[in-house]
Amino acid sequence: MRRWIAALGLIVGLAGCGNADVLSPVEVAQNYMYAIAEGNYAGACALLDQHTRARLVSSTGRDVSCPRLFARCLRNSSTILRHDQAQLLYANADLQLTGSRADVRLSGTAVATAARQVTLVDRHMHWSLTSPGKAITRCVRASRRHRPRGRGRAGAGG
Length: 158
Known about the structure:
By secondary structure, this protein is α+β, with helices and mostly antiparallel strands.
């Protein structure tokens, strides 16, 4: 009888291990918000899929890393947790799931409001962000508009 109970315990334990690392899209979006609120921009960038990260960095037209881009775009958001860690308890995440795509609307805290909405895709039971949220997107667009054009062209051919 003890062997049967031990075997059953082992089977239940192994069955649970297979899904331990699978995070839901809401959990990934919340981890993203937490990383931003902590000022852990490297951690926030790690939650973006590789193509999104590369597109963000290249779209600025500058040689800047993803964490540095976040630091520049989210200056005011990075110290929120140092002032009030309880504020993350009030973050809301509403999920809309369509196949392997998830849209998560965020609200309730300064960081969530800045991000407003993120999009994720499921690739082989691993959800990753395909959009960084409104604040980062707006900042990248603004940096594109203010980027100097035609360096070295002034005075040429005159």
